[in-house]
Specification:
A hairpin with an 8-residue loop joins β1 (13-14) and β2 (23-24). This protein has 103 residues and is mostly helical. It starts with 12 loop residues before the first strand and ends with a helix. The longest helix is centred in the last third of the chain and has 30 residues, at 65-94. It is elongated. The mean pLDDT is 80. It has helices at residues 29-36, 47-54, 65-94, 99-102; strands spanning 13-14, 23-24. It has a two-stranded antiparallel ribbon.
C-alpha cells in the first residue's frame, strides 16, 4: 500500500525537548488543504459525484436519515482529501530542486 504524502506538519510547534522531539506535529498540510478545499458548487457535491466517489447509492432520507447524513459527510470528506492530494502533488511537481538533487 502506498504511503499518502501528508505534506508534513502544517503549523509545527517547537518543543522544549528538541534533542528528542524537534516539534509537535499538529495537523498535516494535507489536513489543512482538505479543510480549506472549496466545493465546486454552492449546493455541495452533485449526487452522481457523491455516489461515484463512494461507490454506492445514496441512502433514502425517509428510510434512515442518519445514514443519509453519514453518506454525504463521507462523500464530502473524500472529495476534500482528493483535492488536498492533488494540491500536494502539484506542489511537489513545481517545487525547486534541492541542492542534493542538482548533483
Amino acid at each position: 500500500m502506498r504511503k499518502i504524502d501528508d505534506g508534513g506538519p502544517a503549523f509545527p510547534i517547537p518543543n522544549s525537548d528538541a534533542l528528542f522531539t524537534p516539534c509537535e506535529p499538529g495537523m498535516t498540510l494535507r489536513d489543512y488543504f482538505a479543510i480549506h478545499a472549496p466545493m465546486l458548487t454552492a449546493d455541495g457535491l452533485p449526487e452522481s459525484w457523491a455516489e461515484s466517489i463512494l461507490g454506492r447509492e445514496r441512502p433514502d432520507w425517509v428510510g434512515d436519515g442518519w445514514e443519509a447524513i453519514r453518506f454525504w459527510l463521507e462523500a464530502e470528506a473524500k472529495y476534500r482529501y482528493a483535492v488536498a492530494d492533488a494540491m500536494l502533488a502539484a506542489r511537489s511537481a513545481t517545487a525547486p530542486a534541492k541542492e542534493a538533487d542538482r548533483g
